Amino acid sequence: MTMIRTTCTTCGEVELIPGELTLQLTALDGAGTYSFSCPACGFDQRRPANHRVISILLATGVDYEVIEDKSRITETEIRRFSAALDAEDWAEHLQI
C-alpha cells in the first residue's frame, strides 16, 4: 500500500494513505494545496503544494479538485474598468 509521509504542525511526521488527503489545484497556474486531518491529533492541516508535490500526489492516486482562484482579476472587472476610463470624469473618482 502506498504511504505518503508529511508533517503535522503539532505531531511532526505522519504517514497517510492517498484517500486521507485532498489536493486542490488552481485552474490557471496549476499551483495547489493539499489538506488532511492528522491521524494522531485530528487537527486539520493545509499545506502548499509545488509542482513536484502535486505530481507525486497525483501519481499516488490522491483525489483532487480544480478551484477558481478568486484573487485574480476577471474579464468582467477589466471591461468595467476600461469603460470607467472612457468616462470624462474618471480622474474625479480616484481615491488617495
Concise overview:
By secondary structure, this protein is α+β, with helices and mostly antiparallel strands. The protein is built from two helices and six strands; from the N terminus they run βββββαβα.
Descriptors:
96 residues; alpha+beta; four-stranded mixed β-sheet; two-stranded antiparallel ribbon; 2 helices; elongated
Instruction: List the total number of helices.
Output: 2
Compute the separation of the termini in Å.
Answer: 59 Å
User: Can you give the mean pLDDT?
Assistant: 89
Strand order of the largest sheet: 5-4-3-6
Largest sheet, strands/sense/barrel? 4 strands, mixed
Q: How many strand segments?
A: 6
Shape: elongated
Low-confidence stretches: none
Q: Summarize the amount of helix as a percent range.
A: 10-25%
Sheet/helix structural class: alpha+beta
**Strand portion, in percent?**
25-35%
Element order, helices and strands?
EEEEEHEH
Walk me through this protein's architecture:
It is a single chain. It contains two helices and six strands. With 96 residues, the protein is an alpha+beta fold. A hairpin with a 6-residue loop joins strand 4 and strand 5. The longest helix has 12 residues, at 75-86. It is elongated.
